[in-house]
Amino acid sequence: MASKQPWLNPAVALGGLAPLALLAVQGAQGQLGANGIEFALNQTGLFALAVLLASLACTPLRLVTGWTWPARIRRTLGLLAFAYACAHFLTYAVLDQGLDVRAMAEDVLTRPFITVGFTAFVLLVPLALTSTNQQVRRLGFPKWQRLHRLAYVAAMLGVVHFVWRVKKDVTEPVLYGAVLALLLAVRVGEAVRKRRALAAQRTA
Amino acid sequence: MRDKLPPEPPGSEVTPEKLYLRRRELLKNAGLFAGTAAVVGGGLYLLGLKRTRPMDGFVPDAGAVAQPVAPAAGAFDTDEPRTPYEDITTYNNFYEFGLDKNDPARRAHTLKTRPWTVVIDGEVHKPQTVDVDQLISGFPLEERVYRMRCVEAWSMVIPWLGIPLGKLLERVQPTSFAKYVAFTTLEDPEQMPGQKSPVLDWPYVEGLRLDEAMHPLTLLATGLYGKQLPAQNGAPLRLVVPWKYGFKGIKSIVRISLTREQPRTTWNLANGREYGFYANVNPAVDHPRWSQASERRIGDTGRRPTLPFNGYAEQVADLYRGMDLKRDF
After folding, report:
1. Residue of B nearest to A105 (CA)
2. pLDDT tens-digit series, residues B210-269
3. Which parts of the chain span the membrane according to its record (chain A) (predicted)?
4. Of the candidates A122, A139, A121, which has an alpha carbon nearest to the alpha carbon of residue A130?
5. How many CB atoms lie within 10 A of CB A156?
């Protein structure tokens, strides 16, 4: 299957990483404005959430349209989201906080805004580690699938983190929240449909 | 003319059909690869453009009136390196022109800062409505190099130009009932397009206790770096209270009212849990979402510890004697 469109995943990975590369180059040249660290934090966080939502959209998109290609780029998008989450966290830890472990621990433990963002990041780690075919086989698909539903939890926490980040106008984070709710609704609808079909089969 | 076809190429030079087709497929795939990569990368890039884009080759307005000011350092001046003019004029919070830091620099040109009238009223013996230039010309301009600390935990060093607020208040003679000073910004969505969106209760209002307002550090700024104040920095007249968070420094003032009651101020009303009325810079009282113990000076990579009262404790700590600044933050 994958050999049918051998360009698809490399293209998504290259295109997806391009803004990160651009950010790094501009940052190194000091072209990110007066507060470049804040800018990098905002950009990497936004991209992490956007790509995570894109990865979560793959299955609903397949269900709604019947296309198969979204399912084929799901893993790449998920790993891309993790890459941006890592970049976001590293920008915070290294550039913003200067690796001050005490200050960061205080942030994570006492400030819900950061607790939530950090939790979302931590939740993505096991998902990235179990993203290989080998791991899917090792865990068994049903267990692997259950584990990977954490992506939805991470996205929800990401939206909350975004809402709290904004000082006053929450339009943009609410938009991301709405997309996430829509994606969840499609999946819940599908689960209900499946269950009904199964029940109908049994009673028949 | 030619009676003979060119010689057949040797078989070794003919591309086999299978390879020929593969080459076409390769080209097609290369195109699809590039197209997809561009769509994914471009899409993300566009998403990121919406917010907080740094200025693209923006050249700040140099300011019309150059004010030659004596280079001698004043009593309150800091000798810390000054933040570059370009950063001071392109990185602003001025929600009347948009929520992004660079919105004010791009959009504040719609503000007509002359002619400009300021109303001074309330508990004063000499209420008046005056033209801003007339108002300013009544006092000698002073340069004050102050630290500015934003509640968002960044800071700058800004050479302001202005007049001490206390001198102006003395001239209008507060009555014995005056306890506070309320400041109001212009409300005109045509000139301030950000006011078309109800993110805050317009017009923006800020306030000080009368003794804070009378303090010699408190400045009504009319310029920076020896030049006229750019619109994005609050032209023609803005408040500078260097020991308080930046949001207390209300911009583009049209009214100064002396009151008996503590004024209801914009950010305090919008979110009193995060933005207190006093808003004194205090490393010991954290913002609910981040620590206030340290700050990043614009232009620096690392952080520096935040000083109580932004380093002006010696001058102003007495104003708050006996108060619990954890409660009255």
Report:
1. B291
2. 999 999 999 999 999 999 999 999 999 999 999 999 999 999 999 999 999 999 999 999
3. 46-65, 77-95, 110-129, 150-167, 173-192
4. A139
5. 16
Tens digits of residue pLDDT in A12-51:
999 999 999 999 999 999 899 899 999 999 999 999 999 9
Chain A 97-156, CB below 8 Å of chain B: which residues? 97-98, 100, 103, 106-107, 111-114
Binding residue per annotation — B150?
A: yes
Partner residue opposite B48 with nearest CB, options A34, A47, A112: A47
Question: Element (H or E) spanning A62, and its range?
Answer: helix A36-65
Element at A89 (helix H, strand E): helix A74-90
Q: Is A6 on the interface with B (CB under 8 A)?
A: yes
DSSP string computed for B69-119: ---S--TT---SPPPPHHHHHHS---GGG-SSTTHHHHHGGG---SS-EEE
User: CA A162, CA A168: separation in Å to the nearest integer?
Assistant: 12
Which residues, including other chains, have CB under 8 Å from residue B247's CB and lie 6 or more apart?
B93, B150, B151, B206, B267, B275, B279
Tell me the shortest Cα–Cα distance from A18 to chain B, in angstroms. Answer: 6
Residues of B with Cβ-Cβ distance to A14 under 8 angstroms: 37, 41
Residues 6+ apart with CB under 8 A from B210: B169, B174, B178, B179, B180, B181, B258
User: Taking residues A52-64, what's their average pLDDT?
Assistant: 95
